[in-house]
Specification:
The structure is a single chain. The chain has 124 residues and is α+β, with helices and mostly antiparallel strands. It has a domain of 66 residues. 32% of the residues lie in helices and 31% in strands. The protein is built from 5 helices and 7 strands; from the N terminus they run H-E-E-E-E-H-E-E-H-H-H-E. It has a 7-stranded antiparallel beta sheet with strand order 2-1-5-6-7-4-3. A hairpin with a 2-residue loop joins strand 5 and strand 6. The longest helix is centred in the last third of the chain and has 14 residues. It is globular and about 35 Å long.
Length: 124
């Protein structure tokens, strides 16, 4: 399994937005969608604002592969769904801290709908 370098982790985690492009079943990439990204230890996580019904999230769940760009880092990735209550709380806190200045958008990102659509990003 490939891991993020310390520089990649730092650059991606410090970026305000991440461009995500899940790979479709035909192998093509979806158009880029800007989303928020947070770090927990040596891992990076994203959530779908609209939850599991969001278009990019449905594609990511179907193929588990795609491409991301943030902080000057462009990488093919795999997506892994996560369902860990302790991790969910840490990620909620990370979203609240990193994106506090966007007060209207943070509550939906830490609500159950988005929490249920959490993916770990792993370099491919």
């Amino acid at each position: 399994m490939t891991t993020w370098t310390p520089a990649e982790l730092s650059r991606i985690a410090s970026a305000d937005e991440l461009s995500i492009q899940p790979r479709r079943t035909d192998g093509s990439l979806r158009p880029p969608t800007p989303i928020w990204v947070v770090r927990d230890g040596d891992d990076l996580y994203v959530r779908a604002y609209h939850g599991r019904s969001g278009a990019w999230f449905r594609t990511a769940r179907a193929t588990h592969t795609g491409h991301i760009a943030a902080g000057g880092v462009d990488r093919d990735v795999t997506f892994t769904e996560v369902d860990d209550p302790a991790l969910a709380k840490r990620l909620d806190d990370a979203y609240r801290t990193k994106y506090a200045r966007y007060s209207a958008y943070v509550p939906p990102m830490v609500a159950e709908t988005a929490r249920a659509a959490t993916l770990r990003l792993t370099p491919a």
